[in-house]
Specification:
This protein has one helix and 23 strands. It is an all-beta fold. A hairpin with a 5-residue loop joins strand 19 and strand 20. The N terminus is likely disordered.
Length: about 300
């Protein structure tokens, strides 16, 4: 049989929580038994076409007494989650861990129990978020198995994860230019604002931006390129292009360029709609709104042709 302990080689994202894989490139794997040609290093090399196997002459016993697999690092690492995938050997010679104990360099241990399965592939996951460990080794000891008659136990991959900083806060809008309350803004100005997040990347598909003035001249559509649509409202919505610079996903710079100059002496209202989100689905719950006033028209003094000729 082939038992594979496998952890996906990507960041795993759960609601408002994320895990990142622990680097095993400098780690060393050992086990109580090794079958020639299938070394323990195969289980931490990131290659799912290779695997470690125990020697069948040291097959798992009913109680698993002394059967173990261990990974050591040269320095301490953080770990709070292990995900294992097993694959059953077609001939039926396989063992599925029933009770497992994890041990760490601080002498602490954690016990886990798993159900039996008839699936060819199965997953066993070890969560201990509330007790994230700082350790330079993790030992996986098999206390008992669901099957125990001349079986192999084989790991294709053993990967470990640590918890990233939990993120429950949505992105926010900052560094507006013109800023809220600005006056005498030139009518040919662009409007710049930043969509920021302190932990998780901003989801640029959720940026919904509207610019309005007080002239009430009907609806217009603001174009933001193929990826984004900015919808008109009953007030006069100013048409223009929205450029999104997402080279830094934690600080996305948005620049709105109106198709035509703004009107003089108007109050311009800008809105980033609720729903602005990060990649962990934390959403801004309310519209973010700010406004500024454009420069007033140049005053023209009334006069007469006679006064003009007289140089008055």
């Amino acid at each position: 049989m082939r038992i594979a302990i496998f952890l996906a080689l990507v960041v795993l994202v759960l609601p408002a929580l994320a895990y990142e894989e622990v680097d095993t490139s400098s780690a060393t794997a050992t086990a109580w038994s090794v079958l020639g040609g299938y070394p323990t290093s195969n289980a931490i090399d990131g290659d799912f076409t290779t695997f470690w196997s125990n020697n069948r002459t040291t097959h798992p016993t009913t109680d698993g007494a002394g059967d173990w697999f261990q990974v050591d690092w040269p320095d301490d690492i953080e770990v709070c989650y292990i995900r294992t995938e097993g694959r059953s050997y077609q001939g039926g010679y396989y063992s599925i861990p029933k009770a497992v104990q994890l041990s760490f360099s601080d002498a602490s241990t954690l016990d886990f129990d798993f159900d039996d399965t008839t699936d060819d592939h199965w997953v066993q996951e070890y969560y201990f978020d509330a007790d994230q460990k700082t350790t330079d080794f993790v030992k996986i000891e098999f206390l008992s198995y669901w099957h125990h008659v001349w079986e192999y136990i084989q790991y294709y991959e053993v990967d470990f994860y640590y918890e990233l900083v939990p993120d429950t806060e949505p992105p926010y809008v900052d560094e507006m230019d013109p800023d809220d309350g600005d006056a005498d803004v030139p009518i040919d100005t662009d409007i710049v604002f930043h969509c920021k997040d302190d932990i998780s990347p901003v989801d640029t598909d959720t940026i919904d931006f509207t610019v309005q003035d007080t002239t009430l001249r009907g609806d217009r559509m603001v174009s933001a390129g193929a990826a984004l649509g900015i919808h008109a409202s009953p007030a006069r919505t100013l048409p223009g292009d929205l450029d999104i610079d997402d080279s830094d996903r934690l600080d996305v710079i948005c620049t709105f360029t109106p198709y035509d100059p703004l009107y003089e002496g108007e109050t311009i209202t800008c809105t980033v709609a609720a729903g602005l989100a990060d990649t962990r689905d934390n959403e801004m719950e309310e519209d973010f709104v700010w406004s500024f006033d454009t420069s007033p028209p140049i005053a023209v003094e009334e006069t007469t042709w006679g006064a003009i000729k007289a140089g008055i």
